From TrEMBL:
InterPro entries: Asn/Gln_tRNA_amidoTrase-B-like, GatB_Yqey_C_2, YqeY/Aim41, YqeY/Aim41_N
Species annotation: Pseudobacteroides cellulosolvens ATCC 35603 = DSM 2933
GO molecular function: carbon-nitrogen ligase activity, with glutamine as amido-N-donor
Protein name in the entry: GatB/YqeY domain-containing protein
Amino acid sequence: MSLKETLLEDMKTAMREKDTLKKNAIQMVRSAILQVEKDSRITLDDDSIIDVIGKEVKKRRDSLSEFEKSGRQDLIDNLKTEIDVLLKYLPEQLSEEELENIIKETIQETGASSMKDIGKVMQAVMPKVKGRADGKIINQIIKKILA
């Protein structure tokens, strides 16, 4: 079963169980997928759908920090639930240790030696960890290693 079909079935299940948070999270991702398909006039495969889901998770994480600043606990709880729902559709996330190893290998491959080379390292690392790590975390680890 494709990821798109899985999302549809899970949405139907959430509707039957009257789990509105899960249903809304899946609906928003499905609409984002549909929007990308309409804009690009293509049908997305599972890898592309994982990219869209990753972007949706990133949006929610960014919003989470804003809600924490404003003290909106109700919205924070909802967003955390949505993030948990969406993470189930992404490949298993890499641990910080695994990321460090990948980044160290990449730094050796690219010959990066200073902070000026962050872009080069990021460009080489991102395809290796596609959908399995957040870009902000990768950037922080690269800065820590190159510093």
